[in-house]
């Protein structure tokens, strides 16, 4: 900029009238104007140089940032500049600003488990650079250190840790798997002066074939449990039938003994049956013509006498020996 001002004033001085045929007075005025223009150009050059130096001799580091300085003579300076206003030598030094706040990076990779099942795992890492090693980072990795280092480290550590667990353990021991990945990744990242704040598993999915196999297994387990309950129900039903048969046998035996001891028991049962039959016939709207003896309604006939004789006779139901 100062050089442009100098060239402009030199052109203006050349265009001024020179002394000649006009006499000594005219030549003196021309020489004075040229000197004044030269002094003005020099003053503007000095002012421009001072403004340029003042503007480029300071730089500001914002909050959550740090700066390192590259010197054209000695290279990278070992000092790490903190927040606020800092000074440097214009043109000879150039500041490089680093963001040291925690930033996230996500990675999703396909890997195999211990039982050779393909697993898609997503990992999120919160990271930041080591503020005391920014000079080393700029020399070896540059400003985009995370794009150069973290994807490969995350991919390798995730695959190495997932390979130690079976597919079902990846679900039941998810916290342990996440802690294992965090330890592996933190140890590897420290070698590159990168600090990891947190490592978390955000996504975990299996292949469609494995998902179908797991679903089929669950269905088979449910069918087996259902069959087990069916067998248990059949056993209980069998016990119920046996108990019912024993009760009926005991009831029949008791009825037989009661008939032996007192034939009037059959009369009582016959009266109860006749009452039930009479209620049914009375409630029916149809007209029927049947024998009263066949319907057990002839309670005043000689059916009971015949029954008693058959019980006490030689050819009765319960013959006494």
Overview of this protein structure:
- There is one protein chain.
- With 321 residues, the protein is α+β, with helices and mostly antiparallel strands.
- Helix content is 55%, strand content 20%.
- The protein has helices spanning 2-14, 24-56, 134-140, 145-162, 167-172, 174-190, 208-261, 264-283, 303-312; strands at 58-61, 65-71, 75-81, 84-87, 93-99, 103-112, 118-129, 194-206.
- The strands form three sheets. A three-stranded antiparallel beta sheet has the order 3-2-5, with helices on one face.
What would a concise description of this structure say?
Helices cover 55% and strands 20% of the residues.
Number of helices: 9
Strand content: 15-25%
| Unreliable residue runs | 16-24, 314-321
What best-fitting shape do the alpha-carbon axes yield? Answer: rod-shaped
Number of DSSP strands?
Answer: 8
Strand order in the sheet with the most strands: 3-2-5
The major pleated sheet works out as: 3 strands, antiparallel
Q: Radius of gyration, rounded? A: 55 Å
What gap, in angstroms, lies between the N and C termini? 147 Å
Average predicted confidence as pLDDT = 80
Question: Could you estimate the helical fraction of the residues in percent?
Answer: 55-70%
SSE string, helices as H and strands as E:
HHEEEEEEEHHHHEHHH
Structural class call reads: alpha+beta
Keywords:
321 residues; alpha+beta; three-stranded antiparallel beta sheet; 9 helices; 55% helix; rod-shaped; disordered C terminus
